[in-house]
Design a protein that fits this description.
With 140 residues, the protein is an alpha+beta fold. The chain contains two helices and nine strands, in the order αββββββββαβ. A hairpin with a 2-residue loop joins strand 6 and strand 7.
Length: 140
């Protein structure tokens, strides 16, 4: 019996850590705050949806992670370090870094390549993440 309990405990510790990463994205300020285990550790400029498109407010889970993804909807546009969270939307790197800090996308959340890679690795290490998008109201 004791051996069984030890074996079960060893298996539990081998599982990936729970999703303790939260990416708070504010459409109004065009910023992302990354929270790990309840502590804000990064604050980065982003680009969310420009006029005519939407980055919908809500709480989502990262559903898929791809080091390199190509948009099926927008002419195979590259989406490095993509974290898909809602339908065809994702957080991903962009080469249009001059646009960061203002709306510019078709709905995805764009980050600088370095920040996208940092977030991607953080989410991988923690076994997932929550994505919270707000429109200027406090993130919950």
């Amino acid at each position: 019996m004791r051996l069984t309990v030890c074996a079960v405990a060893a298996c539990l510790f081998a599982l990936p850590a729970s999703a303790s990463v939260v990416a708070h994205i504010d459409n109004a300020t065009q910023r992302m705050i990354v929270v790990v285990d309840g502590a804000a550790i990064y604050s980065w400029p982003v680009s969310t949806a420009r006029r005519g498109y939407e980055t919908p407010a809500g709480s989502y889970s990262v559903q898929r992670m791809e080091r390199m993804w190509y948009s099926r909807k927008y002419d195979n546009a590259p989406m490095p370090h993509a974290l898909s969270f809602e339908g065809g939307l994702a957080i991903h790197a962009t080469s249009a870094i001059r646009q960061l800090g203002r709306p510019a996308s078709h709905g995805c959340v764009r980050l600088s390549p370095k920040n996208a890679q940092t977030l991607f690795e953080l989410v991988r290490q923690h076994g997932g993440a929550q994505v919270v998008v707000t429109d200027g109201s406090p993130a919950t």
